[in-house]
Amino acid sequence: MPGWCCPVLNAARESELVRICQEFVRIPSESGNERQMASFVRDVMLSLGYDRAEIDPCGNVTGTIDLGGDGPCLLFEAQMDHVDVADPFEWEFYPFGGILQSGRIYGRGATDQKGSLAAMICAASFLKEDRHPECAGRIAVSATVHQERIEGASSRFVCSSHHPDLVVSGEASALKIERGQRGRAEIIVETLGKPAHSANPEYGINAANHMVSLVSVLSGSFRPVTDPFLGEGILELTRLVSYPETATGVVPSRCQAVFDRRVILGETRDGILSQIEEIIGEAGRSIPGLKASARISSSEERCYTGVQIKGEHFVPAWLLEREHPFVKRCLEGLDSIGLPPIVADRPGFGTNGCYYGGVRKIPTVAFGPSFQDLAHITDEYLEVDQLLKGCLGYYGIAGAVLGN
């Protein structure tokens, strides 16, 4: 952007950003238990000069900065919940220590996505502080709940309250612009049988045996559709359970298989489900007595505020053209701040971006510090260099998108 000056991340700003990231990591915030984190995020936003910072009914925190004029609303969004630690004794560094060592911040959520959140919050504050007169519009930074449990569900509250025109999701993208992601469906296939004592299985119908046969048919018959950029709409078995779960000596009367189905452009909820139902129908010709059904799974979760959010586990894919004006502006912003203006050559993970880009059709990209293979791992960490560059990237993107 001609005439737009790159800010300097001076020692004071760098120290502040690193400290905020460490403090975020030190607060445990599993899905449904984000209250302390939310309160701290709001306080940080207000202390950094945000015009408003509010907690909505389901517990998301959204801070806004009004730059004046008639520009668009640019939303930066990152989750503030994280996956379980499981066994903390497997960690070399305490999962909630926010320990800074050898240029890395260690702790659960450092990469996914507390580092992105800290960088977003600081970038918007620094942009306001630097008072670029050519910038107009509004910046909203949202820290969302329950992303790990129900993808995109809490984002509905953010979208309905703040009406963003453009969205940047804080996915760990190695500082590259991701212009699309596959969607996701979780499909439950269920077989029904007849209970009997396992000493006399001939009196029952074993639902688990039927499921084993059905899974084999599904594996052999399913043909994933393919997108040249997003890849394959794969179907992956992730869980098997028979019922009654705890009983011994009982022929299972019911069995469930859970499949993760990745969704590409043009695929719909009903189309995906009917594809599985068609294969089940074909399997019935080779599996005597098969009784089976398929459905999209759903969840209902209680937020820390007491509000319940629910929804089906289905979000569509989204993809922007490489030449889309929003993508080009984001690249201009990275270039203006001295970062390589690179578009990722592969799609990112599923994020809340699937709600904004897939469901609401709002121009959306994913961008963030760190690397996808560091998410959810033991001794998760974020490189400080990535954190600082991530903040610069958000600053540059906001300046380019909101600049006249």
Question: Describe it for me?
Answer:
With 404 residues, this protein is an alpha+beta fold. The protein has two domains: 11-181 and 317-402, 3-Layer(aba) Sandwich (Aminopeptidase); 183-300, Alpha-Beta Plaits (2-Layer Sandwich). The protein is 31% helix and 24% strand. The protein contains nine helices and 20 strands. β15 (298-302) and β16 form a beta hairpin. α1 (11-25) packs antiparallel against α3, α3 (110-130) packs across α9 (384-402) and α5 (207-221) crosses α6 (269-283). The radius of gyration is 23 Å and the shape is elongated.
Shape annotation: elongated
Spatial strand order of the main sheet: 1-2-6-3-7-19
CATH superfamily of the largest domain: Zn peptidases
Structural class: alpha+beta
How many structural domains are formed by the residues? 2
- CATH top level label of the largest domain: Alpha Beta
Characterize the quaternary organization of these chains. single chain
Briefly say what this structure is:
The chain is α+β, with helices and mostly antiparallel strands and 404 residues long. The chain is built from 9 helices and 20 strands. A hairpin with a 3-residue loop joins strand 10 and strand 11.
What's the topology here?
Layout: H1 11-25, H2 35-47, E1 52-55, E2 61-68, E3 73-79, E4 99-101, E5 104-106, H3 110-130, E6 137-144, H4 155-162, E7 166-169, E8 180-181, E9 183-192, H5 207-221, E10 226-227, E11 231-232, E12 235-243, E13 254-263, H6 269-283, E14 292-296, E15 298-302, E16 308-312, E17 314-315, E18 318-319, H7 325-336, H8 353-359, E19 364-366, E20 381-383, H9 384-402
